[in-house]
Amino acid sequence: MASRTDLAYTVIDGGSITTPKGFKAGGLHCGLKKTTRHDLGAIVCEVPAAAAGVYTLNQVQAAPLKVTKESVGEAGTLRAVLVNSGNANACTGAQGEEDAYRMRDDFAAQLGVTPHQVAVASTGVIGETLKMDRVSSGMAELPARLAATPDAADDFCQAILTTDLVEKSVCVALPIGGKTVHIAGAAKGSGMIHPNMATMLGFVTTDAAIGSEPLAALLRQATDVTFNMITVDGDTSTNDMLLAMASGLAGNEALSEAHPDYAAFASALIYVCEVLAKAIARDGEGATKLVEVKVRGARSDASARAIAKTVIGSSLVKSAVFGADANWGRIIAAVGRAGEPIDPETIDIRIGAIVTLEQSRPVAFDEEAALAYLKGDTVEIHVDLHVGEGEAVAWGCDLTYDYVRINAAYRT
Asked: Which residues in the chain land under pLDDT 50?
């Protein structure tokens, strides 16, 4: 274990979505992708798990979202989630909806559970119907691939990727009422990232005993300060989904706001979501740098979040970071157009440790030092507004030539 002594939880090196008690996972290649990379995966719980989800607010929503919202809303519990990559099953009409229900129902039959205990998710190209013969063949094989092992968890993480370059996962442990509770997560995302109530695809497992309602409240809270604070390209997907499942097998007294360890669990959940969100931002299509924007001194936290996301989403700011150009003018311009209350005469800006603006007035700085800093793989931008106590952090990446190359030929 890699310990974080300043926190109430411990980060588990090598932990995965199958580390929490009761969970298995797996993945395989069924033929949806042109390569032999895995493209069908599942997480399965041995008991009905309390479930919660947050979903894209894009008004054009893929068929799997309708099916999953129905499953989660039926009883607030799930036994499994089935995920395919390589095809979003979005804008596919009645056929797409029929295919999403068929995925749910057929996989439920494979597992011997009721259909409403299965959620489905899809990611990939929009507007193409699923090759259901291949999906069905993969579903028939998948139960035998499920295991509570790191390798099986790795197979799942591979199965949900599209243009991602790396897998994204994290696991922590913490004491809850004398019991050891685990929280783990896996996610995918690289392009079409500007979440609004979700990420592209994210999955959280925990063995904590917690009901679906408090789990949903905590998931929304964590999402607001993590997944909702990242952007790669300003596009909100048709398929964004974040699901959480809690098996309850850790044996703790059920968590609620009255529980003395509720805040500790909430903090650990936020950490898991933050690690995944930052990993998505760092793995942005064509990206060479993770960019972190920290805003303080805003009128409110909500105002700080809006300003931080405006700065991190600015194509001009992102391009300047790629070019290692300490162009603070683009930063203050983004602050000013965020639509939030500010005092235009009291803004401080710092790039890393290099002060570029104080009280909205330029400060002479070492251009060579700024160039050297901006050439690193992580760039921090600090904005202090001096109008209140609100603060927020947002994450994104630089905008590169490769982003255009990747997306210019996404379907081909």
From this structure: 1-6, 191-192, 197-199
Candidate list 199, 223, 356, 400, residue with the active-site label:
199
Distance CA 41, CA 212 (A): 24
228 is in an annotated binding site: no
At 11-33, the pLDDT tens digits run 999 999 999 999 999 999 999 98
Residues 121 and 206 in one domain: yes
Number of structural domains, the chain? 2
Are 191 and 54 part of one and the same domain? yes
Three-state secondary-structure class, residue 379: strand
Tens of pLDDT, residue by residue over 106-126, are 999 999 999 999 999 999 888
Q: Are strands 10-11 and 168-176 parallel, antiparallel or unpaired?
A: antiparallel
Q: In DSSP terms, which residues pair with 44 in a beta bridge?
A: 24, 80
> Rounded to an integer, what distance in angstroms lies between the CA atom of residue 135 and that of residue 133?
6
pTM value? 0.86
Is residue 407 annotated as involved in ligand binding? yes
Domain boundary among 259, 282, 305: 282
The answer to whether 15 touches 184, Cβ cutoff 8 Å, is yes
Q: Shortest CA distance to 199 belongs to which of 153, 246, 157, 239? A: 239
- % of the chain surpassing 90 pLDDT: 77
The annotation status of 375 as a binding-site residue, yes or no, is no
d(C-alpha 65, C-alpha 55), whole Å: 7
56 is in an annotated binding site: no
Six token digits for residue 12 = 């588990």
Cβ-in-10-Å burial (0-12, 13-18, 19+) of 262 comes to middle
412 is in an annotated binding site: yes
CATH number at residue 316: 3.10.20.340
Q: Where are the alpha helices (DSSP H) in 234-339?
A: 262-282, 301-313, 315-322, 328-336
Give the model's pLDDT for residue 364: 96
Task: Fill in the DSSP letter of residue 2.
Answer: B
Please say whether the beta carbons of 25 and 44 come within 8 A.
Answer: yes
Instruction: Check whether residue 379 and residue 296 sit in a common domain.
Output: yes
User: Which domain-ending residue is among 266, 282, 298?
Assistant: 282
Does one domain contain both 251 and 324? no
Per-residue pLDDT at 187: 93
Report whether 24 belongs to an annotated binding site.
no
199 is catalytic: yes
| Cα dist from 14 to 149, 277, 281, whole Å | 10, 19, 22
